[in-house]
Write a structure and sequence with these properties.
210 residues, alpha+beta, 3-stranded antiparallel sheet
């Protein structure tokens, strides 16, 4: 027959000790959760800022690649003997945040207008040279709605042999495109982050006197 044996030297955990252990465990768990949340937030911020950089770079590349084709014609030899010169020679940056240019074979063109419209860079085409940057029709957005473009500029890089102001008679070949944007995010730490990028573009001239 088995009998219960009581050992007076062994005692259980008191209520106070249990509460102390519970509080200590909660502190450790809280610290771990805080660390995990901080890592997740940091990773998200890194990804969003990387996204901002990539989008600005992509938008800048689209503009630069299209602007680089300005003044190009299908038949340079025939264009060279035209009395009035290249019909697409004018590249206008007279309006802030806007550039007007043309090239043979441009979609919806031959004239293209790239400008800043309500926080988005847009491109529009026109069959005739626009008098202003406000072109009728539906503009095509260059970028997503998650990024707001806050500034866009096209600066002609002039030299001693090129005029400071673009006209039909003068030709500026080098342009500096500068774009600034920020993320549209509920996190103020992200929405306050801005990035600025620039790219120099060389626009070819085709035909005599253009």
């Amino acid at each position: 027959m088995l009998t219960a044996r009581y050992d007076a030297g062994v005692r259980g955990v008191s209520l106070v000790e249990m509460m102390v252990a519970l509080v200590a465990g909660m502190i450790v768990v809280g610290a771990v959760l805080a660390l995990v949340l901080a890592i997740v937030k940091s990773d998200r911020q890194t990804l969003q800022v990387t996204r901002l950089n990539q989008e600005l770079r992509a938008t800048l590349a689209v503009i630069a690649n299209d602007l680089r084709r300005a003044r190009s014609v299908g038949d340079p030899l025939s264009t060279a003997v035209i009395v009035t010169g290249n019909p697409y020679r004018a590249v206008s940056t007279a309006t802030s945040g806007c550039v007007v240019y043309a090239y043979d074979g441009a979609i919806d063109g031959p004239w293209h207008v790239v400008r800043l419209l309500s926080g988005t860079v847009v491109m529009q085409g026109a069959t005739a040279r626009p008098a202003t940057c406000s072109v009728g029709g539906s503009p095509v957005a260059l970028g997503s709605r998650q990024v707001e473009i806050t500034a866009l500029s096209f600066t002609p890089t002039t030299t001693a042999s090129s005029p400071p102001v673009m006209t039909d008679e003068g030709v500026v070949r080098d342009f500096t495109i500068t774009i600034t944007g920020r993320l549209i995010d509920q996190d103020t730490g992200l929405s306050s982050v801005t990035r600025t990028m620039s790219q120099d573009v060389y626009v070819r001239s085709v035909g005599a006197g253009v």
